[in-house]
Amino acid sequence: SAVAEAERTATSSSPAPTGDITNKLKYLFGKEAAETPKDAYHGTAWSVRERLIDSFDKTHEHWKKEDPKFIYYLSAEFLMGRSLTNTVYNLGLEGEYADALRQLGYDMEKVADAERDAALGNGGLGRLAACFLDSIATLDLPGWGYGIRYKYGMFKQVLKNGYQAEQPDIWLTSGNPWEIRRDGLRFEVGFGGRVERKKDGNKEVTVWTPSEKVWAQAYDNPIPGFSTPTTSNLRLWDAQPISEFDLGAFNAGDYDRAMLDRERAEAISAVLYPNDSTPEGKELRLKQQYFFVCASLQDVLSRFKATHGTKFELLPDKACFQLNDTHPTIAVAELMRLLVDVEGLDWDAAWTITTKCLNYTNHTVMPEALEKWPVKVMAKMLPRHMEIIEVINEGWTKWLGGHLKELKAEERAKRISAMSIIHENPWNKEEMLVNMAYLAVVGSSAVNGVAAIHSNIVKDEILNDFYQIFPSKFQNKTNGVTPRRWLAWCNPELASLITETLGSNEWINDTEKLSALRAHASDPTFQKKWAAVKHAKKEKLAALIKKIHGDSVNTNALFDIQIKRIHEYKRQYLNVLSIIWRYKQLKKMTPEQRKKAVPRVCLIGGKAASAYDMAKRIIRLVTAVGDVINKDPETKDLLSLYFLPDYNVTLAETIIPAAELSQHISTAGTEASGTSNMKFQMNGCLIIGTWDGANIEIAEETGVDNVFVFGVRADEINQLRKERKNFKTDPRWDEIMKDIEGGMFGDKDYFKPLVDSVNNMKVGNDWFLVANDFAAYLDAQEEVDKVYKDQSEWLRRSIMYTAGSGKFSSDRTIREYAEDIWHVKPSRPAA
Ligand code: 26M
Question: Is 679 an annotated catalytic residue?
Answer without folding.
Answer: yes
